C-alpha cells in the first residue's frame, strides 16, 4: 500500500506549482512588452518631429475655448499625446498679428470664442492685464446690467460687442392716479405740455457684454428667463432701471458697426438728452389730466444777438443814427 501512495503524492506536489509558475511567466512577458512600448529598455530619446523646410510651427487651440477665458496650458496641449498642438505653415502665409510663441498666449483673455485647431492672433485677446470672466467684456468706464430681454424691444439678435441706444416711451394717460417722475425725458420731446406720451433717451452708446441666454430661476416652480448683459454709463443705470420697472416701453436702436471715417459718431445735443421731467395731475372742469413739467432748468437756445441784449443793440444803433 505504501509504494502506491508515494508516487501519487509527488504528482500532486508538482501540479500545485504549475499554475503559479505560468502566471509568473505571463507577468514577465507583459512587463517586457510594456517596457518596450514605453521606451524603458532603450536609452535613446524619441525622435522629435522637425518642421518641414520653409515652414514655421504655429500653436493652435487644442480644444474649444469660450470667450472671456484666460489661456492656460490645458488649452494648448493635446490631452491624448501630451504634446503641444501645433501646425506647420509656410513662412509667407503667416500674418504679422499671428502669435507663434506659446509663451505669449499664456495668461491672455480671449475676446471671442476660439475653436479647436484655430491659430491665435493679437486681435483675439483683450489688452494685457484684463481680468478673466464676464467683467472682461465691460468697456472701461461702463457698468454691466443684466436685463430681461423681453422688456426691451429689438435687442434680441444683437451680438457681443454690438452698440446701441435705448429709448423709453411712457404713456402718462394709462391709469396714473398719483404724480410720478419720469427721469430722462428728452426736453425736445415735451412739445405741447398737454401731450400724454413722452419719449426719452435713457442709454447712449450701450454695448452687449453677453448675448441672449436662457437661465433657470430656482424655486417651487422653475422659471426660464431670457436675459442679456449690457454695459451702460454709470449715470444711466438708474435711468434704465426705472424705465424697465415703471412699465414704460423701451426700444433698442442699434448703432452702425462700420468704422467711423472721420471724427466720433454724432450724438444728440446735450440739451435734448436726459432732462428730468415731473408729471403732475391737474383738475380742470372736473377732469383730471397729467401734465409734464421739466424738473430742471429749461435749455435756453443761444441768442442770435450774441452776448449783448437786443436793447443794447438797439440803443447802439440809435446813437449811430444820431451821430449822423
What does this structure look like?
- With 324 residues, this protein is an alpha+beta fold.
- The chain folds into two domains: 49-137, Type Iii Antifreeze Protein Isoform Hplc 12, CATH 3.90.1210; 138-257 and 270-294, no CATH class.
- Helix content is 19%, strand content 26%.
- The chain has a six-stranded mixed beta sheet. The protein has a three-stranded antiparallel beta sheet with strand order 6-10-11, with no helix packed on it. It has a two-stranded antiparallel sheet with strand order 1-2.
- Strand 10 (277-284) and strand 11 (287-294) form a beta hairpin.
- It is elongated and about 115 Å long.
- The protein starts with a helix and ends with a helix.
Strand order of the largest sheet: 3-8-7-5-9-4
Helix/strand/pairing category: alpha+beta
Shape: elongated
Q: Count structural domains.
A: 2
Q: What characterizes the major β-sheet? A: 6 strands, mixed
The value of Rg in angstroms is 38 Å
| Helix/strand order | HHEEEEEEEEHEEEH
Strand percentage, roughly?
25-35%
Number of strands: 11
- Count of DSSP H/I helices: 4
| Through-space gap between termini | 168 Å
Mean pLDDT, as a whole number? 76
Regions with little confidence, pLDDT below 50 for 5+ residues: 176-193, 296-314
Which percent range fits the helix content?
Answer: 10-25%
